């Protein structure tokens, strides 16, 4: 877990990281003497860097979750002199942890060489190791991939070539020609694009929407290089800001968890590689009207040995998991039941996805039914649009209206759609690919709280919670 802000994060963050076993690279600054943007910390660096850095180190150095100090990230006009000054200052306060800097590996005074996007190019880390064989490395921003929950494309895309960021738009063809032999190429899943008509701001949730390398290629690299400690992907969560995908986008799609807190498919790809608990995850959804007979790539992530896929009870074959970290079938689309059986020693896991019919109702799934009347406790309510059989409708965009009664208040409604500019406190929201998240905060009174959800053409539903 990487944290980078020019001011300390909330103490509860580090307490949670300690309890949950996260490793934190605690980053003090995003820039030094020169501003990256108007009115940023660069205006105050000379006056305040010692005070702020000392407060961060002294406050957080007793947290076992903090394993690396970082003194900067992609610092504009960074100098070896300032890097040494910051490194010496940190070591005067704490010698128990190494120090790094995102893209500061050329300045010569950090303990661990920190690599951002350049480290994703083929051979870049290996070449650096040849020149600096005693240096340990860490991926301070590796890797960058993009995905939008519930959106799929079968042709691989590269940001520079297909959807360049603002700083890449002045010469995307020339830039692509310069880097195309350096990026990790991921084969297309089909010869022709299967999923046409998606908003180009949205990105594919197969592992094929890439800046320079895919999730799977990054994991392979981290396993391969003994001098690479590991990597911090950019980013775990979608976040408001850096919306260079273009108006009206609120952010880019870098997270593996969206703005509403819902997991994207890449979340489960990482889980298949990092978790010892047996798991299986299948994508995409199986509601594709109008695509009957068209071959759709079905991908399975699992940490078990093999998987067997069934369509409407008919086996489509058993395939072993390989170093590619995914199992793929090309399945001619037919509505009905898609089922996977993942198998390992003395273990079989099943996941079933059914084709949904039209949306008729709402399902409410709270993460808890009871809260304390302390003005702090929060209920997270997942709102799914479902059909008459209660099956999740993955392409639903119905507007849902919410009403709350009792000693609680709605403090946020979000759907994860990066181009939806609705106010978070408005009492209604369109579903995005079938889902909405509602956050309900306790007041300082006890009693019963009722959340009502309704929408045109949808059967209204209620959830009740107790505030004690």
UniProtKB/TrEMBL annotation:
Q: Which residues form the Glycoside hydrolase family 2 catalytic domain?
A: 8-100
Q: Does the keyword Nucleotidyltransferase apply?
A: no
Residues of the Glycoside hydrolase family domain: 362-462
Q: Mind telling me which residue stretches traverse the membrane in this protein?
A: none
Annotated keywords: Glycosidase, Hydrolase
Q: Which positions fall inside the DUF4982 domain?
A: 294-342
Please report a single Pfam family linked to this protein. Answer: Glyco_hydro_2_C
InterPro entries with a match to the protein in the record: DUF4982, GH, GH2_Domain-Containing, Glyco_hydro2_dom5, Glyco_hydro_2_cat, Ig-like_fold, Invasin/intimin_cell_adhesion
Query: What family is it from?
Result: Belongs to the glycosyl hydrolase 2 family.
Please identify the protein, giving its name as recorded.
DUF4982 domain-containing protein
Q: Which organism is it from?
A: Paraglaciecola aquimarina
């Amino acid at each position: 877990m990487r944290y980078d802000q020019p001011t300390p994060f909330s103490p509860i963050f580090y307490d949670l990281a300690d309890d949950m076993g996260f490793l934190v690279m605690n980053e003090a600054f995003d820039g030094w003497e020169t501003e990256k943007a108007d009115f940023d910390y660069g205006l105050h660096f000379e006056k305040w860097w010692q005070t702020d850095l000392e407060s961060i180190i002294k406050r957080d150095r007793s947290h076992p979750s903090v394993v690396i100090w970082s003194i900067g990230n992609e610092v504009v006009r960074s100098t070896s002199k300032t890097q040494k000054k910051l490194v010496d200052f940190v070591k005067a306060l704490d010698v128990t942890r190494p120090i790094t800097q995102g893209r500061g590996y050329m300045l010569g005074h950090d303990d661990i060489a920190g690599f951002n996007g350049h480290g994703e190019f083929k051979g870049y880390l290996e070449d650096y190791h040849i020149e600096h064989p005693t240096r340990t490395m860490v991926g301070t921003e590796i890797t960058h991939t993009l995905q939008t929950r519930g959106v799929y494309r079968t042709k691989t895309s590269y940001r520079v070539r297909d959807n360049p960021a603002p700083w890449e738009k002045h010469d995307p063809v020339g830039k692509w020609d310069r880097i195309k032999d350096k990026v990790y190429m991921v084969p297309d899943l089909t010869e022709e694009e299967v999923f046409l008509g998606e908003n180009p701001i949205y990105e594919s949730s197969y592992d094929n929407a890439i800046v320079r390398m895919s999730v799977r290629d990054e994991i392979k690299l981290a396993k391969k290089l003994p001098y690479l400690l590991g990597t911090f992907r950019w980013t775990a969560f979608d976040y408001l800001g850096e919306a260079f995908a273009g108006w009206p986008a609120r952010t880019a799609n870098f997270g593996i968890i969206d703005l509403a807190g819902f997991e994207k498919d890449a979340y489960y790809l990482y889980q298949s590689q990092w978790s010892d608990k047996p798991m299986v995850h299948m994508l995409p959804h199986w509601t594709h009207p109008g695509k009957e007979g068209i071959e759709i790539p079905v991908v399975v992530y699992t940490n078990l040995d093999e998987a067997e896929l069934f369509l409407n009870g008919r086996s489509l074959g058993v395939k072993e998991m390989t170093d590619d970290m995914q199992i793929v079938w090309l399945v001619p689309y037919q509505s009905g039941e898609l089922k996977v059986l993942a198998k390992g020693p003395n273990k079989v896991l099943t996941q079933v996805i059914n084709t949904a019919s039209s949306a008729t109702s709402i399902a409410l799934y709270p993460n808890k039914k009871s809260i304390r009347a302390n003005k702090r406790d929060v209920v997270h309510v997942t709102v799914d649009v479902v059909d008459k059989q209660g099956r999740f409708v993955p392409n639903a965009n119905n507007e849902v209206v919410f009403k709350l009664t009792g000693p609680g208040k709605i403090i946020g409604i979000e759907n994860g759609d990066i181009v939806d500019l609705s106010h978070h406190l408005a009492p209604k929201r369109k579903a995005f690919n079938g889902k909405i998240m509602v956050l309900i905060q306790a007041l300082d009174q006890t009693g019963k709280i009722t959340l009502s959800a309704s929408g045109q053409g949808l059967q209204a539903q209620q959830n009740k919670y107790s505030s004690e």
